[in-house]
## 1
Amino acid sequence: MIVGVPKEIKNNESRVGMTPAGVFELVKNNHTVYVQSGAGDGSGFFNKDYQQAGATILDTIGQVYAMSEMIVKVKEPIAEEYDLVQEGQIIFTYFHFASSEPLTKAMIKQKGICIAYETVEDEEGTLPLLTPMSEVAGRMAIQQGAKYLEKPAKGRGLLLGGVPGVAPGKVLVLGAGVVGIQAAKMAAGLGAHVTIMDVNMKRLRYVNDVMPPHVVTDFSNEYSIRKHIKTHDLIVGGVLLKGAKAPNLITRDMLKEMRPGTVIVDVAVDQGGCVETTKATTHEDPIYIIDDVVHYCVANMPGAVPYTSTVALTNVTLPYVLKLANLGWQSACEKDKSLQKGLNIIEGKVVYKEINEAFNWDTPVLV
């Protein structure tokens, strides 16, 4: 199969869909790999590295799309890329369709085979291709939240870990999934007091077992959330519904109950956000303020640490890329049920029910 790796063109996105190590494995399996010139520069992988691994370097993104049977990338195609997608071409990437109707309609129109990293699901019900980026984003949420709690960034002027004689900050984490646990771990490591909330008691019991005593759990409901937001300094939104839009756990009116300078980091922004006032921002312009509450809602948080993120992502995507290349998408998905769950749009037909539900469409679900 001919596999293409284009340069990411989303704002401040420095990750790349595949490392030279991944290219080497594909070439070893007799596949052809085209990499756009400069695609890996931001992650510290250069043209010569890809060439040494066996890739052919192409000058433009248009060439990569035109000459490839499968495109492997990181972020969803943006408007400039929509028309480059060819009928029957496999696009393997993060899509997050439920948060973008224009993207969904564009991919339906182009009739490609859209396989979404974030909905590939293994037998245990986990999301193996989302996990490493969730780990990065969860850890970064605390790193960024601590920074924006500083007064020059319009935060409360609070050191998250405190100092002797001064109490540490308080962190509220919504969701005890991968993002939430990684955020809690980082915040606890800094010495902050952490409250983590979820509706899944099994997850809360797990957190209670593995976290230090200054990480406490609480069952998530609106009453409890309203209580905690009044006293916590940093709020991390880490709620995920597989392939669907995130629920609004914090509504606009709740902002007035928070102290001025409170910081919200909504990691769920890719799925529409779990805060009503969330709107996607970029690393170039990462925050905005509503009712004296600082919102950090960067839609590609792991893109700020592209080397770590690219290596972590290729580690988990490569086995699936090899299956798709070796067998073709139909046979690969028939033999691997977890990969089959990654199918979102097939040649103009939506086949993942949560997408239809997000837009209230009546399109029949095929798989």
## 2
Amino acid sequence: MHRLDIKQKTDIRLVDISPDFWYPIAWSKELRRGKTIGRYFGRQSIALIRPKRGPVFALENRCAHRQVPLSKGTVEGDSVKCCYHGWAYGRTGKCLDIPYLGKDENREKIINRVRSYPCREAGGMIFVFPGDPEKADKVPFPQLAQVNNPAFKTRQFNPSVKCHYTFMHENLMDMNHQFLHRRQMGQIRARYLGGETGEDFVEARYSFARTGTQQPLAERLIFGKHTYDPNKIQPVEEVVTIRTTYPYQRLFIHDKDGDLVMELFAAYVPNSPSGKSCQTFGLLSVLRPQTPLLIDIIWPVLGIFTNRIFQEDKEVVEMEQRAWNELGGDRNREVFPIVNKLRDLLINNGITH
């Protein structure tokens, strides 16, 4: 099928995200030693198990016996025991023990197993590979902002949003929506500087022209004071680059000297069988100012500022999802070329039913 045909016939909100990538499905801090929790990747229910010793592992969140969630079970050694009858499963998903059967009967019944998932921890997140496990070692692991760079300070954000994951990609890629954030950002206008596309990525670059004197405190503390002179053409103070490298999204801010001052990593993970909700896993790294401890002083201000921005985005994408529900399909009339290229990317790399 040619791309033009795909654009005409495919409703982007019905395109599932490809499972053949590494996806975060929980924060490391959510899973204590000797415990298990359950999470969804789309229609797949997954149990994450952290033994008292050793790394986290991930299994299908259903006992092979009665389909009860293993996330309700008990962690013992390097296995998890179903809460119902005590069937025990190891890291590979193989059933290790059925406690009420004798040894000979156990040997015959232990052919039961559940699916296991490639699993690893990085950047304070637990990742799984929900697709073909044979591809896991060949697929590049995402770069997680600047979490390992001591020159930056990183905060986590994790809003759960009641919308299809594609709305989130469109929201960040299209910086023309700054009017939405006028109460937080003041009066600014995005200036599109161009973009690039490839088989697995779309990138857009912007600067911002301030059209009023109001400048948020968090912005002023990080980037310095920007004055507005209506009689002069404003210089490009910072360049904001948004890049979707399927299936992740990143944002970079470089100052006028070309130095990186802020980086965002975001993954939007479908967390329900309906596909109409997703969990955001975000890492926001900010360059530490030269003044010692200044970043720690401004950190709470930055947190409040970014949370308000995210809440406004959350509200509007959820309104978009409700409109799709009510209209019975995608009625968007997109006119911004880079967003249309983004939509092509998400369709062409996703799973179309």
## 3
Amino acid sequence: MKLQAGKNSITFTSFGVALVGDLYLPEGFDENKKYKAIVGASPFPQVKEQVLGTYGPEMAKRGFVFLGFDYLGMGDSPALSGEFKQSRYMFRLIENTWDAVSYLGTLSFVSEIYGMGVCQGGSIIASASITDHRIKKIATVSGMMASDAFQWTDKAMVNQMIAAANNSRQKIYETRKPDYVAPFGLNDEQSREDYIAVAGVMAEESYNYYGRDGIKGPKTIENFTNMHIGDQPMESLISIGEHYADKIVQPTLVVYGKDAPTAICSTAFIDKLTNEHEVLAVPEFGHVDFYYKPEAVKVSTDAVAAFFNK
């Protein structure tokens, strides 16, 4: 396939199936030259047209090759035989990332490979890099690397989530049918007013992005839905990146909103890092601002580009 500057649709193999991705190439791309490449990792429960579709062109504009892709069972990528779509399981996301790195490694014009993750993508990239040293540097933006202080503080609530996930897994096994839920209480039909009235601290900014009328919600992104397979918390509540942070050897950049409710997910991770690392804590932006707001995306992409170019 002939690759050209801009967005290129590609596939690569993981778990024996073809995952679908977008490979963003810099202006004036020349396959005989060498470029630094980035594998992107997206927030839960996103598809490649959302955050990665925002960051891909921005990083290509800054001279990088950028790979955004749909994980197994998400977006345009198939589920495994006998399994169901919208099944974004954490351990598989890590292996999909390793295979994405392998794909980039086959491209003759790629010199070094870096990893960049946003929200849950931060946890994915941090976890993948622990034992994949083909990834030479990593950067996280609004990263959810540390789940203990954010997700496990209210153990009664966590145990309710686990009970629901366990029941869902049993139901799926017995019926051989998917059991879909709205992980954040947000479905594809709710109005802004209805959701904000019952949701938590990040309700408005979450709806502004993911809601029916949101900037990257199901009306805008055809292959996206807020509904997800019900047993997913059995994996997402396990944070590998946080507890293995001191094992990460790659230089690391952590960008986050200083006053965002999720800041602890970056700061607790930073506290455990023993490698060379840099931190950019930005007071004026919230967690979701870094997904799409031009002024926030410029801050994060400029910082990531500068870090990867050092």
## 4
Amino acid sequence: MTLPPTMNAMILTGHGDTDKYEWHTDWPMPEAAAGEVLVRVKACGMNNTDVNTRAGWYSKAVTGATENATDETPDGNDPSWGGKPLAFPRIQGADICGKVVAVGDGVDAARIGDRIITDCWLRDPSDLTDKTKTGYVGSECDGGFAQYCALPSRNALKVTSDLSDAELATFSCSYSTAEGMLTRAKVTEADTVLVPGASGGVGGALVQLAKRRGARVIAMASEAKHNDVAKLGADRILPRAPEDLRATLGGEKITVVGDVVGGPYWPTLIDILERGGRYTCSGAIAGPMVDLDLRTFYLRDLTFTGSTVIDLEVMPNLIRYIEAGEIQPALAASFPLQELVAAQTAFIAKQHTGNIVVVP
């Protein structure tokens, strides 16, 4: 296969608002280095990491919600998920669905033609379990907001599915994040899981994956999105932020809260956890600064788990769930790659229920 010397790509030039993106039609083609594959990107999902990284929201100097991050200035020392400066220019986009078109040295040529989705986490080949030596596709290396992307072969996971490219591009980040959270919290059929923000990509994945584990699931979302959330299989759906959550829940006993929202409502979520309950978190789109009464934490024997770098078994499990039809994509909308700014604006404004993808 003859590959072109250049490609279309959306380039992030620095931290800030969406004007930091630049559209290029002549960006140099990547090459597959030793141990890598070159992927023709067919679709790429959008997630909060893309927004947060662009805005520098991960910096401790930023205290507001994700949609307001650019109103504050990151201090430059810790603007990425890993707390380190990024190299620019950068091509973002971790949730890739595509086809392997070339391989680097040491990679079996039989991989050419594989349909793949990404394991977003870049790991140290000498110790795949070392979470201190990890990177993220679209952050520490270029990602899928382009026509082509070079990835370590182990991060390009073969998938066999009748789902469309856009549908498959919804799984890598949202669903692996959700499965990682549920794994850390050790969710089983004995649990009742409360999911704030259930209309979002991760929230919707939490609903499906917790139901797959046999748990009872109570979703929280704005009432305009209840019909869409119902399709994900939640046992009950509540308003986004009931004034009296305990009364609204009635006799429900919440053993797990799976949260990517945070913000001012956070103490209410902690207060309704049963004794011995677990809170698991992988985001704070409504704001990272929260109030915690330590007495609630220790007197109620609660367990808090943060979840970022997923365990090794998460992505192979997701591939198995996808191929068996045990989970379904929640594709909200797709945009041409050159309209990424419009796509991200819609994503931030939560105009849709589920995941948004871009198509090169």
